[in-house]
Amino acid sequence: MLKKIKVTQLCKGMYINDLNCGWLDHPFTLNRFKVDNETAIRRIIAAGVKVVEIDTEKGDDVFIEELKTQQVPFENVLSAALSKKITAQQELGRARVAYAEAGQFITEMMANVKMGQHVELEKVTPVINKMSVSILRNPNALLGLSRIRLMDKYTFEHSVGFSVLMMVFAKSMGLSLTVIKQVGMGGLLHDIGKTLTPSHILNKPGKLTEQEFVVMKKHVVGSRIILEKSQGFSKIAMEIVAQHHEKFDGKGYPLGLKGEQISLYGQMAAIVDVYDALTADRCYHKGSEPSEVLRLMLKWRGSHFNPELVNKFIQSVGIYPVGSLVLLSNDYLAKVVEIDGNMLKPQVELILNSKKRCYVPRKIINLSDHPDIKILTIESHAKWNVQQ
Ligand SMILES: [Fe+2]
After folding, report:
1. Which pTM value belongs to this model?
2. For residue 140, how far is its CA from the centre of ligand 1 (angstroms)?
């Protein structure tokens, strides 16, 4: 059966019968194909496609209900979100909508700010509301999505990823919903000052010269001034914007604040900024595996970061963060899809048999239910040629 669906409802396993746009307007060689990875979905969204036609006889059908949250008050959505346990897989469709809307918002906002417009608080609020509800339902869906980057969209993807990580971090620290939303807002807008940075510096492949770095550093003050002009942003959001490049040992910028001179939210932002920047793919280099970045961050405790907060951050993203590739003791290579309680025993999706080097049918298993299966190593996506 042919069915028209919103692009944000697309899932792995669906068969696209029509992309509803000209062949030259999308990045694929064919108009009809089976969606076999998240990156394909993200590329369709990035091409500006809004509605696609799927063939439910050749692929999966829509498994999420049409979003009904738009007209419902936020408080009602929230209490519904907290009333039942939802898996990352069930949350994925809604998380993708929230993620896509946040990406669209920040892209448009950056273009508007470049033209001299202010950031409007009332436009950010619904975007953050939707992301925070998704994180309260199940943080792993948005966390997983924020690991998949389109390399040519670094600045806005970093902003959305940063916002997600800040909210997940705040949630795991037991902070209130009001604070979770404020850190999300600060996170989404923390680099808005980069709209004032010349693009040859912003997108330079490789190390910046000393002079270029001086210019780059100005984005922090730029972000603060833009938000001050916009009015209405909370103290917490402003602290994130103003302090996300400060370091615990006083060697950061722009003010060289030290230790407790940096607010709690500024200290959290410094951790998230480095984690997100080092794990992200850029057009000129591959991002490092999350576990490798966490290892480095443990080394930088006390110099770059507040040591206690680094430990709490690791608890929030997990020792095997969502999206990590792991080799299991039963020879299967698998991807972490959910952390539910035991950080050492996440839920994983089997991908291939490493001995036979062959793909296996898609299956999710909870390692907590399989005490005989252990995680042996964390593997690189590049080594196994597996997409994020
Ligand atoms: Fe920044």
Report:
1. 0.79
2. 25
Ligand 1 centre to CA of 319 (Å) is 25
Question: How many Å lie between the centroid of ligand 1 and the Cα of residue 269?
Answer: 10
**Residue 200 CA to ligand 1 centre (angstroms):** 16
Q: 39 CA to middle of ligand 1, Å?
A: 25
Fold of 74-317: Hypothetical protein af1432 (1.10.3210)
pLDDT tens figures, 296-350: 999 888 889 999 999 999 989 988 888 888 999 999 999 998 887 778 889 999 9
CA of 220 to the centre of ligand 1 (A): 6
Domain boundaries, the chain: 2-55, 74-317, 325-384
Q: CA–CA distance from 140 to each of 3, 45, 108, 302 (Å)?
A: 29, 21, 26, 28
Q: Is the peptide bond before 254 cis (omega within 30 degrees of 0)?
A: yes
Q: How far is the CA of 111 from the centre of ligand 1 (A)?
A: 17
Task: Let me know: does 138 contact 167? Beta carbons within 8 Å.
Answer: no
Residue 56 has pLDDT above 90, yes or no: no
